[in-house]
Amino acid sequence: MMLGLTGQTGAGKSTVAALLREAGFPVIDADRVTREVQAAGSPVVTALAEAFGGDILLPDGSLDRRKLAFRAFSDPDRLAKLNAITHPAICQAIEEKIAALRAAGHPSIVLDAPMLFESGLAARCDRVIAVIADEAVRRARIRTRDHLSEAEASARIGAQRSKGFFMVHADYLLENTGDLEALRWEAGELIALLKEAEGGRR
């Protein structure tokens, strides 16, 4: 069973991924894969510098991710360009990791991907889990977490799917507007359902 995990920035997706991992589900972290394919000197980084300007590179040749994100998220066309450059390489690397986990005999795999739908990877999944929260809550979380200005937080939130989109397209929805214990309880209920479904597929 292939499980997609996605959601809005600041909603708590990473916490849910950690809970799924604790429960024994192998998790492929698309953000980590992204960092791997965007290593200094990689073809992806070269293409990004050509598209967005050489000043998105730090002196050591690595990406200034904050500068790239602010530049890309400020305009839909630029965001589409970013995705067109990065998604093919990311998807290929993810497919390689899925194949390795399948070969190791794992019956279920979680793909933790904030751009699950935009990348087309949702079609690869049997079920999709989405983590959502109110905009004000998310804004406060990401400003604290990522040390963002109000403008940067607005750009990042504005570039993402609405709560309504996830309510329509996800199979399981976790709304994280409370504290950690509330989310842990809600995720625990979902994990029990997933374990039951996993057992039925064996």
Beta percentage is: 5-15%
What about the largest sheet?
Answer: 5 strands, parallel
- Physical arrangement of strands within the biggest beta sheet: 2-3-1-4-5
Rg over C-alpha atoms, rounded to the nearest angstrom: 17 Å
Query: What separation lies between the terminal Cα atoms?
Result: 10 Å
Order of helices and strands: EHEHHHHEEHHHEH
Principal-axis shape: globular
Q: Given the helix and strand composition, which structural class is it?
A: alpha/beta
Low-confidence stretches: none
Count of β-strands: 5
Roughly what percent helix?
55-70%
Oligomerization: single chain
Mean pLDDT: 90
Instruction: Quickly count the helices.
Output: 9
Could you describe the 3D structure shown?
The protein is α/β, with parallel strands linked by helices. It is built from nine helices and five strands. It has helices spanning 13-22, 30-37, 43-52, 65-73, 76-103, 135-146, 150-158, 163-169, 180-201; strands at residues 2-7, 27-29, 109-112, 127-132, 172-175. Strands 2-3-1-4-5 form a five-stranded parallel β-sheet, sandwiched between helices. Helix 2 (30-37) crosses helix 5 (76-103), helix 3 packs antiparallel against helix 5 and helix 6 crosses helix 7 (150-158). The model has no long low-confidence stretch (mean pLDDT 90).
